[in-house]
Amino acid sequence: MNASLLTLLDDYNALSRRGVIRRDIPDYVTNNLNPRFTIREYQKEGI
After folding, report:
1. Is 25 helix (H, G, I), strand (E, B) or coil?
2. Are 45 and 21 in contact, with CB atoms under 8 Å apart?
3. In the chain, what is the greatest distance between 2 CA atoms, to the nearest angstrom?
4. What pLDDT shows up at residue 28?
5. CA of 35: how far to CAs of 15, 24, 26, 31, in Å?
6. What is the pLDDT of residue 18?
7. Which of 17, 28, 26, 31 is nearest to 44 (CA)?
8. How many angstroms separate the CA atoms of 47 and 43, rounded?
């Protein structure tokens, strides 16, 4: 993996662990998802 990409990933993970990155999903996204499926944590982080 590229060294600068790894640094970006490390920075992102550090911010995520500290709660800086918001995990709330806007209603316009959740309203368009299939209600039969639950959203997993990694999906929340990805959205």
Report:
1. coil
2. yes
3. 40
4. 92
5. 30, 17, 15, 8
6. 92
7. 26
8. 6
Whole-number Cα distances in Å, 7 to 14, 23, 31, 42, 43: 10, 22, 35, 20, 22
pLDDT at residue number 41: 84
Scanning the structure block, which residue is given the tokens 């959205």?
A: 47
Per-domain boundaries in the chain: 23-47
In this predicted model, what pLDDT tens digit does every residue of 1-47 receive, in sequence order?
677 777 888 998 899 889 898 878 889 988 999 989 888 888 887 87
- Read off φ and ψ for residue 17, nearest 5 degrees: -65, -30
**What is the model's pTM?**
0.50
